[in-house]
Design brief:
With 237 residues, this protein is α/β, with parallel strands linked by helices. It contains seven helices and seven strands, in the order βαβααβαβαββααβ. The protein has a seven-stranded mixed beta sheet, with helices on both faces.
Length: 237
Amino acid sequence: MTAKTGLIVSAHSADFVWRAGGAIALHAARGYHVRVVCLSFGERGESAKLWREKDMTEEIVKRERRKEALAAAQILGCEVVFLDRGDYPLTSDKELLFTLVDHFRELMPSFVLSHSLADPYNFDHPLATHLAQEARIIAQAHGHKPGGSVLGAPPVYLFEPHQPEQCEWRPEVFLDIGPVWDKKRKAFECMAAQEHLWEYYTRTALQRGNQAARNTGRKVIYGEAYQRVFPDLVEHF
């Protein structure tokens, strides 16, 4: 296991690309082993373009979404694991929860990324985050699989939802993703089933870059924004 690691819990197979592709590529370039856990392929609710094709089936959609996500992950430099738990709705049980706990304890991530805590447009997204949060807590419990390694307290960051104003989300942390923007854009272009989002998330990156520049005085063109779940400890202001 690599000393520096990151864990992303993604409800659907494209979410990690739009929302955290820059963070993934930045950390991969710095030697982090980044693992993306995709809870579903987004086969029912996030693959309309594929469903418009003649004689389409759910298995074909899953296969195509898997190929897209693997191609994007290769560009970004991360590992991706597919749990194939279905979407619209994504459903939770102890098996899924404990699978995520195992990922936490195996990886011992330095940071965790997932969705906003609320999303009235897509209930799969906050469920993914609630699962990640509960798994993090269980992974910290000495009584869960006693004798095994116990998780510390990795910070959790919530990546930007599609409609932040409606999701009780606000930008609190910015990342300058300019050095890896080309990788993120190329990863976008792997997600052919959701081509309509390529330009939307390009505009989002430019907007967050502009806000990062205004708030820091640094030259930032492309950015990603995150909300923190837990407070930070600092030595000075």
